[in-house]
Amino acid sequence: MKITFLLHNAYAVGTPLRATLALAAALADRHDVELVSMLRHREVPRCAVDPRVRLVPLVDTRMGSADMAHPLFGEPAVDLPRADRRHHQYSRLVDLRAAEFLRGTDADVLIGTRPGVNAALARFGPRRALRIAQVPLRYDAHGAPLRAELAGPYRALDALVTTTEAQAAIWRSRLPLPGVRVLAMPAVVPSPDAPPPTAAAEGAGPVLAAAGRLVPAERFDLLVEAFSAVCARHPDWRLRIHGEGPERARLRSLIDGLGLAGRAELAGPRSPDGAEFAGAALAASAADAGASGPALVEAMRRGVPVVGTGRPPGPTELIQGGGGGVLVPCDDGRALSGALLELAGDPERRRALGAAALESARRHGPGPVAERYDRLIAELRATRRSRSVHRVLGRARSRALPRRNERT
Q1: pTM for this structure?
Q2: Are 2-188+368-402 and 207-363 in the same CATH fold?
Q3: Which pLDDT value is given to residue 322?
Q4: Per-domain boundaries in the chain
Q5: What is the DSSP string of 45-105?
Q6: Residue 66: how many other CB atoms lie within 10 Å
């Protein structure tokens, strides 16, 4: 069976991309797997691609490339959703190349990985192929304009896959898609490049690590304030925040104002594989919308216990399903500092939570998730005819509803 993943840019970096590459490699144990990248901005991918997996770029955006001289390269995309926050990176040339590829592909299964790509998949993917859209963002994070643009194309899908059951339920209730299987599938937690410690944070120094863009949504200001309470009781602890962004100066001022200079550090750019968590005793996020969730997953796969806000995407379901950390409400500095204080003073609990984090991450490894995709594909094939009937009946009901409203 041939499985093709459609990506925005396979040459970039980030936890979601590494998760997709790990899933593709696991599926390559049993299938012919291909990655199709809408864009290519560098010679070699920053994240390792399994040699069994083919990588096919559609539009080359490297300086001096033939594609950049193409007359359609400078025209805005019209097929891909305008409300997609990556729309400005696309062009009419991306439109045409994506449609051409999808119409001519011989893949048995097509898997999209973000909204714009999913829309192209739904519009131009061949009907004989199974079309699966991954939606890693929360329903509300799509925004009303984007949801309106996606509502029509998404009705042509075979399945829509979210990262949590709660989000799957929201999609089912707010955007009915007759004939489309809407379900949750855990995000892949790739294995770390280096072996994790045998016990969580065993031998690690008293370091609290955090990572993410230095932007308001990450709420690093709340984390710094919560850490000041930890310092008052445990002066040997240190906070390291990895990342860059526009909030850097404000966070530096906050650290100095709280007298945390030398104890709280803005450690510069984060690594692409989460290596900054390897020497930490504890990891934390105060993000108000789960923005640092993927970073905490990187910590968990290294056996580091975490404190995070209870919103997906991120470690929420990992923790609820198997432990590995503590969840606190968003924007609750008192709860955050309380959780950090408790764990900072209890190395035995940190060790136990770290071991649970490592085990939870293993259960969400590429192999188990690949097996779940195999089962989903088999189910979609077996239910193709019945889902087609539901799709037709759903469209008929949608057309009849305005007529009934007019009569009343």
Answers
A1: 0.80
A2: yes
A3: 67
A4: 2-188+368-402, 207-363
A5: -SS---TTSEEEEEEE-STT-TGGGSTTTTSPPSSS-TTSTTGGG--HHHHHHHHHHHHH-
A6: 8
Q: Can you list the residues of the chain whose pLDDT is less than 50?
A: 198-201, 290-291, 403-408
Best CATH choice for the domain 207-363 from the list 3.40.50.2000, 3.30.930.10, 3.60.40.10, 1.20.1290.10: 3.40.50.2000
Nearest Cα to 318, choosing from 294, 342, 341? 294
Euclidean distance between CA atoms 51 and 335, whole angstroms: 46
**CA nearest neighbour of 39 among 104, 94, 113:** 94
Q: What per-residue confidence (pLDDT) applies to 179?
A: 94
Q: For position 95, what pLDDT does the model report?
A: 96
Q: Name the nearest CA neighbour of 288 among 170, 405, 138.
A: 138
Which homologous superfamily is 2-188+368-402 in?
Glycogen Phosphorylase B; (3.40.50.2000)
Q: What was the pLDDT predicted at 296?
A: 81
